[in-house]
Amino acid sequence: MTDRLVRVFVNAAGVDVPSGSTALDAVRAYDAGAASDVEGGRRLITDSRGLPLDASAAMSAGSIIRLVAKRDRAPADDSAE
To answer: Is the dihedral of CA 15, 16, 19, 22 positive or negative?
Structure first.
């Protein structure tokens, strides 16, 4: 990483992180507790469209990410067939 900071947006809040930071680094700069939730599998990081984003994804200036609660889905019930 370099000393240059880039502005990224986590849940609409701007945070400055070093160039080359990951999505998890950006979440940690936004809220350390939220980063712990991501690491513990209780939250997911998504891109601006709501698509899942890997925590190790590199951030660039203007990146927009959102945090969502992880919801486990029950297995599909095939007995209705």
So the answer is: negative
Residue 81: pLDDT over 80: no
Identify whether 53 is part of a domain: yes
**Residue 47: burial class (beta carbons within 10 Å; 0-12, 13-18, 19+):** middle
What are 28's two structure tokens?
Answer: 């940690």
Query: What global pTM score does this model have?
Result: 0.82
| pLDDT tens digits, 12-52 | 999 999 999 999 999 999 999 999 999 999 999 999 999 99
Judge whether 24 lies within some domain: yes
Q: What is the CATH number of the domain that holds 53?
A: 3.10.20.30
